[in-house]
Design a protein that fits this description.
Largest sheet: 3 strands, mixed
Structural class: mainly alpha
Strand order of the largest sheet: 3-5-4
Distance between the termini: 66 Å
Radius of gyration: 21 Å
Helix content: 55-70%
């Protein structure tokens, strides 16, 4: 039985969880506890800090290509490209990212890796997919719920219960290998699929998305075992994208083809 003090705490926690339910562009239910304005401020602050710490590329051709690809993608997503900040960072690692607050960064290492505009569109579309699906907010919110859940569990079970340490450890371990890790495999797969749709609509060949991940795998970006990874393995990611790309060819064929490279 819950005590009179513990019960309102549990009810408040449950009410907060239910009231914050939202839906991603892919139709998946998610919990968002942080206002988008606050998320944008956090993203902007992180991006500004990154610009202070890392050197940005002044190569006009690299910047033109990245801006061209990103602009085409954003237009296809119904976004206003002029509201987004796009930077190329001098970094040899093959990486790209997008942050809340409408920020996109691409490493020079990614520019060296991709073989064409379509592969660059695949990775940028994926990263913007994370932002438009509010995955950052979802991750922060899951962390908040985990901390609140630990407090509720402690209140409900009582500190004298001999099972406390085992149940609390189970909750803690769940947070450690699941909830609090950056971008879950489910979020990564969702961003992959959203990015695939976006690139096809923007006039980039979706068949090049799995080719990008083949290059990443060859470069050593396959990562460790899939079970504890925050990303799908390269093989499962390549298989999923290869299966879905043909279905998006009609959208690509009917689009206004992009010409960035």
């Amino acid at each position: 039985m819950f005590s009179r003090i513990k019960f309102p705490l549990v009810v408040s926690f449950a009410a907060l969880f239910v009231s914050a339910c939202a839906t991603t562009p892919a139709g998946r239910k998610q919990v968002l506890l942080v206002g988008e304005g606050q998320m944008a401020e956090m993203g902007d602050a992180s991006f500004n800090e990154l610009k202070k710490k890392q050197v940005t590329s002044s190569d006009p051709e690299e910047n033109r290509k990245v801006k061209c690809v990103t602009t085409a993608l954003l237009k296809a997503m119904g976004e206003n490209p002029s509201e987004w900040e796009i930077k190329v960072f001098k970094d040899p690692t093959p990486n790209a990212f997008a942050l809340p607050g409408k920020n996109v960064g691409v490493h020079t290492g990614m520019m060296s890796l991709v073989a064409n505009q379509d592969q660059l569109a695949a990775v940028i579309g994926h990263e913007i997919g994370h932002v438009l699906a509010h995955h950052g907010n979802e991750r922060v919110s899951q962390g908040m719920l985990t901390q609140a859940g630990l407090q509720v569990a402690d209140a409900v079970l009582g500190k004298n219960s001999k099972n406390d340490k085992y149940l609390m450890a189970a909750l803690g371990m769940g947070a450690q290998v699941g909830i609090l890790l950056p971008f879950s495999r489910k979020q990564e797969t969702e961003a992959d699929r959203l990015g695939l749709e976006y690139m096809a609509k923007a006039g980039f060949d979706p068949r090049q998305a799995p080719e990008l991940w083949k290059l990443m795998k060859a470069k050593g970006g396959g990562g460790g075992p899939e079970f504890l990874s925050t990303h799908p393995s390269s093989d499962s990611r390549i298989a999923d994208l290869s299966e879905r790309a043909p279905g998006l060819m009609p959208a690509y064929e009917s689009s206004q083809k992009a010409h960035c490279f």
